[in-house]
Amino acid sequence: MAAGGRGEGTGMDDVHVTQWDGTAGRGPRAVFAHGILTWGDDERYGFAAQRPLADRYRLLLMDRRGYGRSPDIAHSDYEADADDLIRLLGDGGHLVGHAYGGVSALVAAARRPDLVRSLTLIQPGALRPAAGHPVVAAALERARKATTQLPEDYPPEEFLRASTEALGMPAPEPTPRRLRAAASSMAERPCWDAEIPLEPLAAAPWPKLLISGDWAGAPPLYKEYAGEPLIACAEFLAEAIGAGHLVVPGYYPHTQRPAEVNAALRELWGRGDGLRDGTAQGPAGGERRDFEDRP
């Protein structure tokens, strides 16, 4: 992979990667995978607010296939994403995934735990493992029904509105890049039905963290349809794989509360790096921490 420098993009087997690196290539790498309707360095839904972490780390923000500046693909797929993430990890790195990208990160980490220094999942859409929870089961039923009822010629503009305005959220400007992301989101393999082997993740020695919003202030319909299942899913996964669980105010943690999220990432990454050199310390996984709202 060619060096990308600060804010430049790099190509990796045709996948576009935004690289932010203030370490002249000497810092540990951290690989990010985004969710739907977005791309790696998007300010609205992506990881733009995590750029300050580049002072000590090499941040690699992958545009999943069909998104951002990565090439088109008929159907985006978390298994294909996992292949790309594994290649980006190189000889080892930290892994961060949000929503759909959280499922991709789970698959990659379960497949190659030897390459992972730490795993952070921000409201991952991995509903199937937590299907025993009634709220998650209801969400799965809704999602499966909605997928089968979606017409093949459904316009991306309508999908964008249905994913935002219809749930009480403001819709982003329908730019060509946003509409392309919406079209890819419609066509991709559903992440919520992914079968994920949790045993390799539970057995892995590196630190793990789930990050959720408390969903205070979210539109009621959005909280019911997305927030409550995602909270239940995060609680289940944290217990199942032995991860910490950080809860911050709001419903889009890494964009709404970047200071808390970035501080948590620094702490987790420090422990993961310490594990490699034998100086690991800090809180064990499996505990839930809540940030009180601050002015």
CATH topology: Rossmann fold
Our measurement of the CA-to-CA distance between the termini, rounded to an integer number of angstroms, reads 42 Å
Unreliable parts: 1-8, 291-295
Estimate the mean pLDDT confidence: 91
Biased composition (Basic and acidic residues): 286-295
GO molecular function: hydrolase activity
Biased composition (Gly residues): 1-10
Keywords: Hydrolase
Q: How is this structure best described in words?
A:
- The N terminus and C terminus are likely disordered.
- The chain is globular.
- The longest helix is centred in the C-terminal third of the chain and has 22 residues.
- Helix 1 crosses helix 2, helix 3 packs across helix 7 and helix 4 packs across helix 5.
- It is built from nine helices and nine strands.
- It has a nine-stranded mixed sheet, with helices on both faces.
- It has 295 residues and is of the alpha/beta class.
